[in-house]
Write a structure and sequence with these properties.
The complex is a heterodimer. Chain A is an alpha+beta fold. Chain A has one domain. Chain A has helices spanning 9-17, 56-59, 92-105, 112-119, 165-173, 210-218, 224-227, 275-288, 304-308, 315-322, and strands spanning 2-5, 21-27, 33-37, 63-70, 74-76, 85-90, 121-126, 149-153, 157-162, 179-180, 235-241, 247-254. The longest helix of chain A has 14 residues, at 92-105. The radius of gyration of chain A is 21 Å and the shape is globular. By secondary structure, chain B is α/β, with parallel strands linked by helices. Chain B folds into two domains: 2-103, Elongation Factor Tu (Ef-tu), domain 3, CATH 2.40.30.10; 109-276, 3-Layer(aba) Sandwich (Rossmann fold), CATH 3.40.50.80. In chain B, the strands form three sheets. In chain B, strands 10-9-8-7-11-12-15 form a seven-stranded mixed β-sheet, sandwiched between helices. A six-stranded antiparallel β-sheet of chain B has the order 4-3-6-1-2-5, with no helix packed on it. The two termini of chain B are 34 Å apart. The chains are: A alpha+beta, B alpha/beta. Chains A and B meet through strand 4, strand 5, strand 11, strand 12 and helix 8 of A and strand 4, strand 13 and strand 14 of B.
Chain lengths: 327, 284
């Protein structure tokens, strides 16, 4: 097994930097851990169990131009060359989140912006120890935690698994800092992903369950759970005309099914009028999916929605009740 | 890729149908050679929709209102109520728009063969049902009895009234009209009575085992219509409803048109009632 002593981490990061822009969880001065550019000399925050925003921000920017318009040329996709980027320090739940987004935005007719960024991305996973907000252990996911390389942390170093041809190529470059070791490592959280699990029966999403009303009563509709969710990818589409009167830009922006505007149609009529309805809708979508992800539970168990909900709400508690889980 | 990029089109005619609703004819600017296939957006099925862009303003989903034509003309019946459709009030022939589509699955014409068809339209719901109606009339021999029930707020709000009255003179179709408010000129309109749309079903004799119903109207009419159709013996699978949602991407991604685990843009917008039954927020 290829193994790296932890003392060589800085050297490894330098080698990675030669292959592309290196981003990883970084503990900011404000105490928040976020995925961002890892400057030389700085170490990634590998102890942090979760970043505030998931890595989806690299593939779907919070707001981005999807089309440009010029009177003489019509609408065009603003494709730019995307420089190679390495995301280092992804936990299996975040890797699974990316594989979920891949199902939505790649496929038969890939989204060009997503595809160009995804193709430029190398994913390096790192093992983790779930905390009280994580639910990967309780609710394993059918989503695959795909990676190019995966680093399993042990006491004094890192054991490496190769997950793709790109990962194998990258390992050749990293060979300087690697050695061969016979190791017997315990299973890590990767084992909770890519599992075949049955969907909860429809009856368990009963509208009449009192828990809905109780939970919805506490929800303040801020939408934080959706913003920090690694698989929430609804977007709004906006268009703005240029001041020259002959150009325009079409944007997409992260949207939120907890907002009343989400299910509105022309004239202001909404199909998700009250908060309990929107709350149920979110739960239903998260656990049953739709479109390309129909029947695919979209919760990776990362625990962000629990950890960051200002009202302390926990959809997982509801999942437990609905699925007859005593815990 | 293609489905994500609007193609430029030009408005070729503008016909005000009512004070707030206009019928537009448009043609794609791509010069299609004689005999060449139609541009994708001009080749569609009744019940499908397209996305119409006004550069600098935005994009909205609009149902096809006509049928594919050999010259690529697309008819759209638009009510001026939203941020894109209000500016369209001032559109005139020669103005440019963007189009992409078609999206969705449309009405299941294959399963309509040799069946009696009952079309029920409320208000602007006449727009997509006109597409279906015209398609049915083109191949009139394929279907059994054709009946259209159409209700609007008041006589002046009945869309395509001249066309419908003309059609009703033939034996191809029976048409019954209703208006919520009598207004001044009701007496001049044949086959029209002051009633709510579901009441028109009392006038219809249908054979439930060989009838399909195609519905399009404001959400509020769906529940009473479906109830009444069920009472008349029509199975849920034989009732097709076209749902309104704000499909923003048309590609099953933006999430705005979800109905339960279905998406209007890829699984609909036409659904049979058996699919929708029990889904919260599907009809109202």
């Amino acid at each position: 097994m290829r193994y790296m002593e932890i003392s060589k981490l800085q050297r490894l990061l330098d080698l990675l930097r030669q292959q592309g822009e290196l981003h990883s969880p970084v503990l900011g001065d404000d105490g928040v851990t976020r995925f961002e550019l890892l400057p030389p000399g700085k170490l990634p925050d590998l102890a942090a169990i979760r970043t505030q925003l998931p890595p989806k921000k690299y593939l779907l920017h919070p707001q981005e131009t999807i089309l440009t318009y010029q009177a003489d040329a019509g609408y065009r996709v603003p494709l730019a060359t995307v420089p190679a980027m390495i995301l280092f320090g992804l936990h299996p739940c975040d890797l699974a989140g990316i594989s979920y987004l891949d199902r939505i935005f790649l496929g038969d007719e890939p989204d060009q912006l997503y595809l160009s960024r995804r193709a430029a991305l190398t994913l390096i996973g790192v093992s983790c120890t779930p905390d009280e907000f994580c639910s990967c252990r309780l609710y394993p996911s059918p989503l695959e935690a795909w990676y190019d390389l995966f680093f399993q942390q042990s006491v004094d170093g890192i054991a490496v698994s190769i997950g793709s041809p790109r990962g194998a190529e990258l390992m050749k470059i990293l060979d300087d800092v690697m050695e061969e070791r016979e190791l017997l490592l315990p299973e890590d959280t990767r084992c909770f992903f890519g599992r075949k699990i049955p969907l909860p029966p429809e009856s368990e999403l009963d509208q009449g369950l009192p828990e809905w009303q109780v939970l919805a009563g506490h929800c303040i509709g801020c939408g934080a759970c959706s913003v920090c969710c690694p698989t929430c990818s609804c977007f709004d589409v906006l268009e703005f005309g240029g001041l020259d009167g002959s150009s325009a830009e079409r944007l997409r922006r992260w949207d939120n099914c907890l907002f009343r505007s989400h299910a509105e149609v022309a004239g202001g009529m909404s199909f998700q009028k009250d908060r309990a309805q929107r709350f149920r809708y979110r739960y239903r979508h998260k656990y049953r999916g739709f479109g390309q992800v129909k029947g695919v539970p979209g919760c990776t168990g990362c625990g962000r929605c629990r950890a960051f909900c200002p009202a302390g709400l926990d959809l997982r508690a509801l999942a437990g009740k609905l699925e007859g889980d005593a815990s | 890729m293609k489905a994500g990029l609007p193609t430029s089109a030009t408005i070729t005619s503008v016909r005000k149908l009512t004070s707030d609703t206009t019928l537009f004819a448009l043609r794609c600017d791509d010069p299609a050679a004689a005999g060449a296939p139609l541009p994708a957006v001009a080749s569609f099925l009744p019940g499908q929709f397209l996305e119409l862009s006004l550069p600098g303003i935005g994009e909205v989903p609009i149902s096809y209102c006509g049928i594919p034509s050999s010259d690529g003309t697309i008819e759209l019946c638009i009510r001026h109520v939203g941020h894109v459709t209000i500016p369209l009030q001032n559109a005139k022939p020669g103005d440019a728009v963007g189009l992409r589509g078609p999206f969705g699955l449309g009405f299941p014409l294959k399963s309509y063969e040799n069946q009696d068809l009952l079309l029920i339209a409320g208000g602007l719901g006449m727009a997509p049902l006109r597409s279906l109606l015209l398609a049915l009339l083109v191949e009139r021999g394929q279907w059994g009895e054709l009946t259209l029930l159409y209700g609007a707020r008041e006589p002046g709000a009945l869309l395509f009234l001249d066309e419908l009255l003309y059609m009703s003179q033939s034996s191809d179709i029976r048409i019954y009209l209703a208006v919520d408010r009598r207004g001044s000129c009701l007496e001049g309109i044949p086959h029209c009575r002051a009633a709510l749309l579901p009441a028109l079903l009392d006038q219809v004799m249908l054979q439930p085992e060989r009838t399909h119903a195609a519905l399009c109207g404001p959400p509020i009419v769906y529940t009473p219509l479906v109830e009444r159709l069920n009472q008349l013996g029509l199975a849920d699978e034989r009732i097709h409803l076209s749902l309104e949602r704000r499909m923003k991407c048309g590609q099953g991604r933006c999430g705005h048109c979800a109905v339960g685990t279905y998406l209007c843009c890829t699984d609909g917008p036409v659904f049979n009632y058996a699919m929708l039954k029990g889904i919260e927020g599907a009809l109202v």
